[in-house]
Known about the structure:
single chain, 405 residues, Growth Hormone, Chain: A, 18 helices, 0% strand, cell membrane, transport
Amino acid sequence: MLVGGMVGLERTVVPLVGTEEFKIGSDVVVFSFIIAFGVVKAFTNLISGVLADKYTRKKVLISGWLFGLPVPFLLAWGPGWNWILLANVLLGISQGLAWSMTVNMKIDLVGPKKRGLAMGLNEAAGYGAVGLTALLTGYLASSYGLRPQPFYIGIAYTIIGLLLSVLVIRDTRKYAQLESKQINTTTVPKPGLAWVFKETSLKNKNLFAVSQAGLVNNLNDGMSWGVFPLLFISAGVGLEGVGWIKAIYPVVWGVGQVVTGPLADRLGRKPLIVWGMFVQVLGHVVIGFKFFEPLTAGLVGSVLLGLGTAMVYPALLAAVGDTAHPAWRASSLGVYRFWRDIGYAVGALMAGVVAGLFGLIWAVHIAGLLTLLSGLVVLLRMKETIHAKSENVEHNTTTAQTILS
């Protein structure tokens, strides 16, 4: 919850800080903080699993909070846009380490049968806090101004998160080691990151389908993060209304996962991923084609975007957990989360370029088209993973032989 709240600090206010306080006229420059955040978080995700296996999950979690400590101060009092970019570099590192560990530690704790439930609870806490914090910062900004008051709550988040990580949370790596011993009698050597990267990104069809869906899903979030405040302000929606639009997307996304996480355990991963992508397409249609007045379109579209994301998010994480062997699962999750979170940067860059050429609304249209294509890729390429446990023994034997060779 606290990790997610740190991202929520930026959802409503920071794009407006760029345009109104620093008078930045270029959409690409305004969205550069999202690009910086997405790229840094993606690469940190990539190495977080390796670090977790080497130094323990708890130590990586604590280091994530240490990187996050300066962020609210830079956002509140940074004298120039470069200071905002620095805050987002640090936030990307913090999120890549801390959020990755909350995912890995819950997967370690619950085992394979409740993986969807665990991911639903984790992401519900995180993205519920994203939405509530976005709403709160919108109200604070409308009452006190864009800076510094909306960022005071980030100071509390970082201090509480660090203290909990140091004093309360215990490491979970031994649970993964136990599961690895129980899964079969074949000893699977731990492969290097290069092998896991290729296996997760391209060679394994399920992991490829999951990775590209994760990228496009967060492309939507990166696009909306930068575009929605500017789009709806220009349409006459007030700052409080923008706060509600920015809040409802991650709140529905977060709370919905309490339901969709267990559903992914019962119905399977693939149906939730495919239909979740298609529901997001409908959200883009509602916002992009202006079926309602601006505030209503923003709220209805954000509900659909949040619902679709709630369907795919825990299912995607659980599908990686199903497919990857525990010996290299943390690294595979890191690779998946690399591709997923590079979507922030891709979405923000796409939105900046398209908005500069054709207008903000066209960024919404392009994101919707890419989401439709991504859902079709999952429909055609992915096989269900939840019932593949018996096949994993043979697969892991082959994997062991491949790694050794």
